Amino acid sequence: MSVSIHVQNVVKRYGQTTIIPDLSVDIENGEFFTLLGPSGCGKTTLLRMIAGFNSIEAGTILFDDQVINAIPAHKRNIGMVFQNYAVFPHLTVRKNVEYGLQFRALSKQERDERVEDILKTVRIEEYQDRLPERLSGGQQQRVALARAIVVHPNVLLMDEPLSNLDAKLRVEMRAAIRDIQKKVGITTVYVTHDQEEALCISDRIAVMREGVIQQIDAPQVIYSRPFNTFVATFIGHSNLFETTLSGQELRFTPDYSVDLGALLREGAGEGRATTGVRPEEFCLSTSDRGLVASIAKVTFLGRYVNYEIDFKEAKLLPEQASIEFSQDIGTAKTLYKTGDVIRLAVNPEKINVFTESGESLMHGVHR
Amino acid sequence: MKRNAAPRDFWFWTTLVIAALFILFLVYPLFSLFASSFVDAETGSLTLSHYATFFKKKYYFRALFNSMSVTACVTVLAVLIGAPMAYLTSAFNIRGKKTLDILIIISMLSPPFIGAYSWILLGGRSGLITTFFDEMLGIRTPTIYGFTGILLVLTLKLYPFVYLYVSGALKSIDDSLSEAAESLGCGPLKKVFTIVLPLITPTVLAAALLVFMNALADFGTPMLIGEGFVVMPVLIYSEFVSEMGGQANFAAALATIMVVITCLIFLGQKYVVNKKSFTMSALRPMMPISLPPLQNAFAHVFIYGLVFLSIVPQITVIYTSFMKTRGAMFVPGFSLESYTTIFDKLGTAITNTYLFGLAAIAIIIVLGMFIAYLSTRRRNLITSIIDTFTMFPYIIPGSVLGITLLLAFNEPPLVLSGTATIIILAFVVRRLPYTLRSSAAILYQISPSIEEASISLGCSPMKTFFKVTAIMMLPGVMAGAILSWITVINELSASVILYTGGTRTMSVSIYTEVIRASYGTAAALSSILTLTTVVSLLIFFKLTGSKDLSL
After folding, report:
1. Are residues A148 and A103 in the same domain?
2. Please, which residues 95-114 of chain A have a Cβ atom closer than 8 Å to chain B?
3. pTM of the model
């Protein structure tokens, strides 16, 4: 049955190139754990090492307290769901789902019961005698999911299972996956590059970059208190300012600063710091204090209006794709147009301060 | 528990077994052939005298020159016929295109020596056309023997390669490319030369190589129709046959020279094609349009005329197989006596052909699937080497392969000469590539994650291959296997060296009957062979659901 996974000092090399230099992570029993990162960050590599399709150059992977390094993939008792579904095209839906059960000592009766049960759970009962070519992408992915779960695997591994589906189906399927996972209570490792998907589906997320885990935490923590500027900009959008810190006071310009109170960690130090402000963490200043900016471009998004803005005085880190401020349509009094000049204040409870090298200075934030 | 050791799984052992088979049946024989070409038969010492003899004696060197000149002419003519024909049928509306395509494929897949033999029946010394012109009009038609005959037969037999290759390439050119050229102010003729021609050049080169190799290696045609015009395969055969019982070292030297030449041409072509090739796929292929009446008439005459000429041999053999014969001569009237004769005297040839063919195909299918899997999914040093071995049949002419196998397995520890095994072996080596390539092609379309899904569900890699991968590969494998089958039953140049009285096949019998001038029985056998080919081809079309053939 479901297990915890312990990855200890694992290394992955392809010839001379090192994909994962030294990675450790503990995944709890029954947890929905997501590996999130840009393409080429090593997330799929790690997943395939857990599955047994990639060799492990150094380190160990344990299921509970059993080392699985030398166990071949077909004996690890895993369930895997692939990006391209990988449904067997020559077998009917039912035969696909039954496939893994023939390698397990089960009575005919139990086999049938399990199949019936899972076909109902993933809602593909009515298609059970069809061949996969007559199913939509979403239905095929349900078959793949049923096929993986029905064998009662130790862990469920999912490799970008939704990225071949269209936007609407993706939202529907991720809710279905989340529900089914909670219902069967299986430890799940989920790989995706889609931050929105990761945020809404996971118990915990590990953000990866170049084979190194940048931060592991619950979705809301990752979003609101990113451990470094990479996480701050990869998940959601952050405008990065060059600021100076003296005690609890964070100064943006000679006439604008905010008091961070006890939000900073102790001994955060003095001097130059990078501050990340998300587009929704600005508000229109009600006094004559604030950061003056002009509107360069307006994008209307329905619930929000997104503005690309140029700050007059405040200094920004170079090489940022865009500097953005967003306004909630529901509460906005005025909407602006290109060329308008506005004065913005920041919400000191939400913003994040980093060292110049990009690590968080906020209280209680860890990798 | 061992960590990091190469997995000793099913595929590890399969690789080893296949590598061993290739070393025993291909590498070792070839190596001993090359080695024996440097050995003096009487003293057993190392010598270059065989090579010296070849380059000094005009008679021998002449054969190389003949081979190169006739092959070059065939290649140029085949391209000049095949490429324009492909363009005409792709760009313009030609009536009955589908039927024409099938006829072209049939003429291409029938053995070339049937072509030679039919053209002798028509234009030979006492042929139909010759006699007609001589008796009715008193005109002496030019001789069909020698250079002209080889050129005629091989060109008609091989231009279909160019035609099919170029047709395929033209299909992959998206119409938007040609529209883009037009929108930029390029006229229709200029478009052909600046857009279409450069895009199909790599394909034309690939097809030209195939034609060149086939023409160079062909044994049956020059043997039957060449007469005094001796080419390399014929020289190798006659030197080898006349030396049997004595020593075969000189024939080995000739074979080595031949392989060196084909090797160089093959590598040269690979180099050129690699430098110039690009991949295309058309969402909207070229749509044929109608030609103005006059041009339309010319196009139809050109295409129908050529297809008729290509199919003439098949018509001739089937027609003459029903003619009455007296001894070797045809006499007026029809009868089935040619057929009764072959069933009486040559029945074993027919059963041999099917038996050996089926045995070879069974081996080809198994090997083809395994090697295709190893070289696409388990790429490593050994599987890459095996993959290279499988290219050998492209560069080793059939007659050379025949000699190679005979020399290697003529004496203990492994005596195979005169057995059915050695003929099946030659079939497998020569015709494996068709099945191998179509198996590899379909494997590239099957995502590896399908196999991983099966393994993740608890199925071992070996079981996964048989339960999932092999089943999904079947359509591609079968399509290739039918092509292998058609070319196996039509194989002559290796089996003519390897056969003995008990192991003769249909193609060997046709050849020997023609040599004995027993034209009626040869025609009857040819008809059976042609019929088998056509039926197999129809199954192929049914199976693949298309008229596309990749050779």
Report:
1. yes
2. 99-100, 103-104
3. 0.82
